[in-house]
Amino acid sequence: MTELRASVRLQFHKGFTLDDAVPLVDYFARLGISHIYASPLLTARPGSMHGYDVVDPTRVNPELGGEAALQRLVKTLRGKGMGLILDIVSNHMAVGGDANPWWLDVLEWGASSAHAKFFDIHWQSHDPLLRGQLLVPFLRSDYGEVLAAGEIELHFDAKRGLFYARHYDHRFPINPPTYGDILQHSGHPELQALGKRFAALDDSADGQRQAAALFRELVALASKAGHAIDRALNSLRPVDGQNFEALHQLLERQHYRLASWRTAADDINWRRFFDINELGGLKVERHDVFEATHAKTFELIENGLVDGLRIDHVDGLANPRAYCRKLRRRVERLLAKRPAELQGSRFPIYVEKILGEGEQLARDWGVDGTTGYEFMNQVSLLQHAPDGEPVLAQLWSESSGRGADFMAEVREARQLVLTTSLAGDLEALAQGLLLVARDDIATRDLTLGAIRRALLELITHFSVYRTYVSAAGRSANDQAVFDQALEGARTTLAEGDWPLLEHLDSWLGGQALSELPPSSQRKRRAKMIERFQQLTSPAAAKAVEDTACYRSAVLLSRNDVGFDPQQFSAPVEAFHDGCLERARHFPANLLTTATHDHKRGEDTRARLAVLSERAEWFTERCQHWREMAAPLREELDDGLAPSPGDELMLLQILLACWPLDLQTDDADGLHSLTERLTAWQEKAVREAKLRSTWSNPNERYEQACRNYLHTLLGSDQGAALRDEIRSAAMEIAPAGALNSLAQSLLRMCVPGVPDLYQGCEFWDFSLVDPDNRRPVDYAARGQALADAEPLGQALEHWHDGQVKQTLIAATLQARKAHQQLFARGDYQPLEVQGEHAERVVAFMRSLGNQYALIVVPRLTAALLGDSTTPLIRAEQWGDTRIALPVALADKALHSAFDSTAPFAHSGHLALRDVLRDTPVNLLIAHSPSQESQP
């Protein structure tokens, strides 16, 4: 099997199974892919479209074809020398519903369940009504209302002898010692006697074993006395909103407390993934949980079915460093047991980790790098013109009435999520720190309110997702992050609360735990550090990705997962520095420009970035379009619909994703675009949490926004504006396409491993999920690759996307032919001189006597002018040239994209030559001896 050279991310679900991928392997091999990078494959909630809601990690998802289908896929991959990277979910499982046996066992037996310690549950809640109980916030409305409405139904599983309550899709097992409360209503002597035996049980392991025997007896009795059980169930069923007291008393005796879904934000006593009630946090730091949740993955690795791992949301774990190092050790022990033909291959492990500004992935985790969000950000910064920022910022502020300071939006959003959807998590942390304070005479008078206020401001000013405190305390980098947050908190916290910040600094890692003697106080403080670090991460994600990125739109191409929208652009030198840093420390880091989580497709962002170069033009267009759109807006009690900010976002999105060949009189095409944009618009206004939210949708506002969009794209009233928007989109489309080709080539040539997202070998004008997870037309892509032509010829019909595929295939074939050069070669920025030097990125990869030279343009809108093709006319480059290293003096430079003669050079390479026929170029150096070979 080949080493990892290039991957393609595939999203598996019941509509695209493992067997569906088998016939695509040949296509991916011809494209130049070495590994399929699969979304989670273990058993997820039935019907899952993404696989991150795992309900059974012990088997491959039968909806995907099960393990047999996985074996068929891997066998096909092996036939092409290819491998498989698997995405695994270590932080959480799906809960609620009726599909997770571990969760149902916890509901049934409470803290005595064998799986109780699998989930991160705070059994001793600060709420006295929840002591020893689990809050189960899955009811559609308030408990009393739902109970009276008869929507909590009691059922009997006659095959297994189990009683359970049901509310729509949610199953709530009844604790066996309370079966007597049900069976006493049966009127059947044998059932009533059995009920007394159930009532004598306790929740201990012995009690659970005894219950198993009683279940069998109940099954046998039910076969001849089923009518009596039905009578018992009917006696506990509310009628017309009355007679629900008996059922209520039964439910009160369970190990859980049923509650409205709205209670979770304030009262939750178990860790979730972010604020999603249906995803419960796992305590994978426990050895038994680690082994149980990873057993199938380890088996697949040992059997040679998996060749690399991607760890989802590593920052959600209690101790990412310890987890990753333990995972690496376990994997390394398995490698010697793998099939002989796989021996000796590097087994890569990647973490999904969002790096803040200036943050670096720790080098002692034993991983090969991240999934590549930071590279996506670096390329984006490279393609934004700094001169456009003040113009676009002014447009946004004047149009929306909101400031252009993204960090101000983030801080406001953090305050919001910490006091709403994550309020319960913040409260649990504050309550725990109150106990820490009470451990010390010097801090015993600190109040819960003061601790809560200081915590809120501290987390509000955090600049990264989390810190990584060890027993020895914080690292210097983490201390710098904490100091910055402390300083920020002082600017918004009343001065009287400042001293408390110093205590938080000490309690949350400033004082090393190793300095404290072993004690309950030390354990308590360690737990609070863990909870704090597991709270700052979702607070950041919910505030930045799921709120601020939909409230601020200076330019939406700078609002995406892993981006820092506060930073608008960066010079070429910053891009080179990032590549050099990666080459030194994580040369096998994944490099991506599109993911299943992106907010805008890679080509959507690339086209939108052009507006940074044409900011004045865009400002004038927007002002004109908003005047034209006046009849489409509605005046509601709470303001215009859509709001000026939401309208400006929509105009940006329309320009960015307008299909290249969509005409304004194409009813079917416009209908498809309208459906896609309607889904995006609903998500955008709800995520912003300004005029509507997921928990409390403002239907009047949302309907007015839909009316605006549908009229604009689907009626005669919107025809004139529609024509203008399409025309403007086509005007910037060539520059956007050139950005796209540039980022594609950079992704495949800089240090790291290029990762292609499914279908993105053609143009990717997708929006946020689920739009970015639509079915891919692989038949068209396969045919296009079979009909491949030189890059220059593909440019002539660039609208169909084949030019992008041609670029990708040719570059990946060059990587395959010079695998070690691109995998291990040095990275050397090259000096660009002349008239448009700042508009060129040039660098060299070298290893021994192998050399590759990469040239891409940037900020090209002015150079393209009115060209309708993403190719800059040669004369536009003037005297712009690349200074070549001495090592290339006697080398012939051949393009990987055509078979023309080598480029002439004498210490310099002219842009008018190297980019005459292709928008970007990859040159492979050959020595004179190689040139003379036939």
UniProtKB/TrEMBL annotation:
InterPro entries, alphabetized:
GH, GH13_cat_dom, Trehalose_TreY
Task: Cite the Glycosyl hydrolase family 13 catalytic domain residue spans from the record.
Answer: 12-490
Q: Name one GO molecular function term.
A: (1,4)-alpha-D-glucan 1-alpha-D-glucosylmutase activity
List the GO biological process terms. Answer: alpha-glucan catabolic process; trehalose biosynthetic process
Query: SMART domains in the record, alphabetically?
Result: Aamy
What is this protein's record name?
A: Maltooligosyl trehalose synthase
Protein's organism: Phytopseudomonas punonensis
